[in-house]
Amino acid sequence: MDFFVIVELVWLYAVTSSVVIVGRVIFIITLIACTLVxxxxxxxxxSRNSKQ
Length: 52
Prior knowledge:
The chain crosses the membrane at residues 20-46. Helix content is 90%, strand content 0%.
């Protein structure tokens, strides 16, 4: 769950950032990171369940 806390802090920083372009870049990187983590967890659980 620590990862999601970091994501929330990064997202809040991106939203409140005075530089809009930097905020958008951070937001996009955060979305990509979340997608990769969720995808990896999904693949992990699917492969774990299919072995049983």
